[in-house]
Amino acid sequence: MIRKTEELPLSKIPITLDESIMRTVENYTVGFLRIEDGKQGKDLVLLGSGTLVRVNGIPAILTAHHVVEVLPGIAKLGLVYSSRRSYGKIETDGLRYIKIARGTVDSDGPDLGAVILPPPLASSLEAIKSFHNMDRKRMELLNQPPSITGGLWVVQGFIAERTKEEVDFDHKVKRVRFFELCSSGGVIPYTVDHYDYFRLPIEHADHRSVPASYRGTSGGGLWQVPLKRDTPDGEISHATVPILSGVAFYQEATESGQSALRCHGRHSIYADAYEAIKRS
């Protein structure tokens, strides 16, 4: 059977499909928090994002190096599970921090890190989240990856700019809601030295839903989500398991209503990050 391909502009992607993709990808996404004692409850500071992965059976959070750098000194560390679920405080004694690669210029990279999780924490997270198995398609993604024009590309992470606080002064209770964003588009591949990268362009002009700053998204996953139609005129659907293809680490300055997120690519995470986690 010959499968036909079609070119579909982003404007033709149904909102319901976007929302479905976000719900699928958010299953693997967490945010890192610093928890502080405040006057009306806990002050929660978003530090970055990450993707729950398994490498050769080892549970970990794949993220950016500059996010990992700030975590060891935090006495009270928490994880955000999603914009709909609350956060949870985690014990830091069993965590191991892997600083995989860091360049001297933030915008250039490399910028890769990981947090190795102890089995009890991984088990509790598995009850509410999913771990992406990096072994399953590793050799294919390193040697014969799918075309970058196949499907939709998304970066999933938490946005500090959209964090909302609501204070009930009568009961001295503060509620914090974290906004999770799934930014989509096409990617532009490039290579610097040993590392591969993708740029995900962002259109800010006339898009109120697009934040000015993506601070907090650093460490979030870059995913390729294959799309399909069962019939020529049928509805568009997406793959049940998207393809983890990178890690976001830097937002370019906005000029003329445009910026871009810079992300590590497939070789960076399935060769360098994979081997570093496996050796841990």
Quick description:
This protein has 280 residues and is an alpha+beta fold. The protein has helices spanning 15-26, 65-70, 119-126, 138-143, 266-279, and strands at residues 29-38, 41-55, 58-63, 77-80, 87-90, 96-102, 111-116, 132-133, 152-168, 173-185, 188-192, 195-203, 221-225, 227-229, 236-238, 243-251, 258-264.
How is this structure best described in words?
It is built from five helices and 17 strands. It is an alpha+beta fold. The protein has one domain. The strands form three sheets. Strands 1, 2, 3, 4, 5, 6, 7 and 8 form an eight-stranded mixed β-sheet that branches. Strands 10-9-13-16-17-12-11 form a seven-stranded antiparallel β-sheet. A two-stranded antiparallel sheet has the order 14-15. The protein is globular, with a radius of gyration of 19 Å.
